[in-house]
Specification:
The chain is mainly α and 125 residues long. The protein has one domain. It contains four helices and no strands.
Length: 125
């Protein structure tokens, strides 16, 4: 019985990345070859499905970690970084647009031109 259990676990590892249909087919074949009851076959199938899901999640987690590491090494900007920068820009634009203190309008000054003084001459010469 221990040998059959070992074989079952090994098969479960093989089928860790298989689809549900393939796992079900393999479990049925394994149950038939080893004269398992329906309950035992169901438990075996459930174990293989559980192992498959765990392996899938573990692989997904590893892929995400590798992606993060690669992005970090490439010095790329993440979405979170970009969002922070965009928020900061919006905040700065808000400061630029809102009048903190009313500016005095420049008053156009007229240029004063000095006119030469013209003296009138008297009629004598």
């Amino acid at each position: 019985m221990f040998e059959n259990l070992k074989k079952a676990l090994d098969k479960g590892k093989e089928y860790a990345f298989e689809t549900r249909d393939k796992i079900e087919k393999a479990a049925k074949e394994f149950a038939k070859e080893n004269n398992l009851t329906k309950e035992e076959a169901k438990k075996l199938f459930d174990q293989w499905m559980k192992k498959s899901e765990e392996a899938r999640k573990k692989l997904e987690k590893q892929v995400v970690e590798i992606q993060k590491s690669t992005i970090s090494k490439m010095n790329l900007v993440t979405r979170d970084d970009l969002k922070k920068i965009e928020d900061r820009i919006k905040k700065l634009e808000g400061f630029h647009k809102s009048p903190a203190s009313p500016k005095k309008k420049a008053v156009a000054r007229k240029k004063v031109v000095k006119k030469p003084i013209i003296r009138q001459r008297s009629g004598k010469r």
